[in-house]
Description:
The protein has helices at residues 18-33, 47-61, 84-104, 121-127, 139-160, 175-187, 214-223, 233-242, 275-282, 289-300, 307-310, 339-358, 370-383, 390-399, 415-427, 432-445, 453-463, 469-474, and strands at 39-42, 72-77, 108-113, 163-166, 195-196, 203-206, 321-324, 330-333. By secondary structure, the chain is an alpha/beta fold. The longest helix has 22 residues, at 139-160. The protein is elongated, with a radius of gyration of 26 Å. Residues 174-178, 184-190, 255-261 and 478-489 have low confidence and may be disordered.
Amino acid sequence: xxxxxxxxxxxxxxxxxxxxxxxxxxxxxxxxxxxxxxxxxxxxxxxxxxxxxxxxxxxxxxxxxxxxxxxxxxxxxxxxxxxxxxxxxxxxxxxxxxxxxxxxxxxxxxxxxxxxxxxxxxxxxxxxxxxxxxxxxxxxxxxxxxxxxxxxxxxxxxxxxxxxxxxxxxxxxxxxxxxxxxxxxxxxxxxxxxxxxxxxxxxxxxxxxxxxxxxxxxxxxxxxxxxxxxxxxxxxxxxxxxxxxxxxxxxxxxxxxxxxxxxxxxxxxxxxxxxxxxxxxxxxxxxxxxxxxxxxxxxxxxxxxxxxxxxxxxxxxxxxxxxxxxxxxxxxxxxxxxxxxxxxxxxxxxxxxxxxxxxxxxxxxxxxxxxxxxxxxxxxxxxxxxxxxxxxxxxxxxxxxxxxxxxxxxxxxxxxxxxxxxxxxxxxxxxxxxxxxxxxxxxxxxxxxxxxxxxxxxxxxxxxxxxxxxxxxxxxxxxxxxxxxxxxxxx
Length: 491
C-alpha cells in the first residue's frame, strides 16, 4: 500500500505541510536507528493514537530490512467496561496491525492489556462496595488503566533495560497538557525529542505529533492511507456519531483521565452526562440504551441525599466516623455501598445485559465477565457474611441459567445456620453481624498451614463499631448528609 505524501492536502487551518511530514518521517527513522531501545506505542483507537503508529510505520517501512533491529509494541488498554463500539474498532485494528506487520516484515506487534481481576470495576464496586467514581474519588483510573499499562512497560524494561514510549499527546489539546509536555521537555537530557518519563524509571517519552493541530491530524489521516488496512474515514463517522474525543492511553497520573464525555468507559460516572453514549444511541445504536440508562441510574447514587439508603454507616475500616463541614455541622462520613444495595446493582446490571441482547446487541457481549462474578461471590461469601449465597440465585433469575462456579471448600454454613446465629446473638444482646464476621475470619484462615493472621483478624472484628445504623445517624444530630471531605479514605 502506498505510504507517500503525494496526495497530502492542505486545509484552511492545517499547518502541517508535506515537507514537515517528510521531516518527521526522517526524525522518527533516525531516532529508531539511534539505539537498541524498543518502542511502545499507546493506541486507544482515536485519531491521535492512530496517527502516531501510522507515522512510525511509514518511517520504518522506508528502512532497509537489515536496519529493522528492534521491536515496536502497540498496546491498547481494555478496562473491561469500554464502550462496545470502541472496543470492536480497537480489536479489529489490533488484528490488522499484527497481520500487516508480519506480512510486511515490520517489527510491529499488537497487545491488549487488562486490569487484574481484583482491580476490575465490578469487583471493586459490586464486590467491595466502592462507590461510583466522582471527580474527587477516581479510584478506577489507577487500578484499571495505569496499573496494567505500567506492568507491561515494566516487563519490557526488565527485558531490554529501557524503552521509548511513543504517545499521541499534543500541546494544543489543553493548556494543562501543554504545560506538562513543556516541563517534560525541560527535564530532557537527550535533546528536544525525548524526555524521561516522570514516574517510570527506564522509560523515555516521544511525542511525534506534539505540535500538530486537530486539523493536521484529520488531514493526515484522510489523505495518507492506513498502512495496515484500516479505513480512516470510518474514524470520522465514529467521532461524528459520538460527538466526542478519544480517551488517551493513561500511562501515569499526569495523563488526563477521560471525563468530559470522551470515548472511554461506558460506566463512567465522573461526568454528569454521558453525551458520547447519548449520541451513539441517537445515531442508531439503540441497543446501547439499556447501558446508558444503567449508567445514569448508577451516577444518581452520588446524590448526597441518597447515601442514607445506599451506603454503609461504617467505613471500610469498620469505624463510624463523623466530620464537621464548613458551616460547623457535624455529619456522618458514609462508607461503601451496603451489601443489600450491591445486590440491587448486580441485578440491574444483568438485566441491562439481557436488554442489550434483546435490542439487537451482540449476544456474546458480557457487561460483567463470569470470572468477575465468581470473584464477587467469593468476596460476598468470605468477607460480607453472605451465607445465603445470593449471587448465583440473582444470576439464575435474570439470565435464566445456572452460573458455573467452583465447588466450595467450606460446607455447612448457609442461610439456616446464619438465622440461628442471629437468633442467639440477639438473645445475648450482641451484634449478629459481629458473630458472622468472626465465623468469616475463621473460614478465611481455614486449611492454612500458618494461622497467625487469625488473631489480627479477630482483633479487627472486635474493634469494629457495631452500633446500628440508627444509632450512628443519631450521633450527628441531623439527617443531613454530605460528600466525603476526603474520598480516598474509603479505601
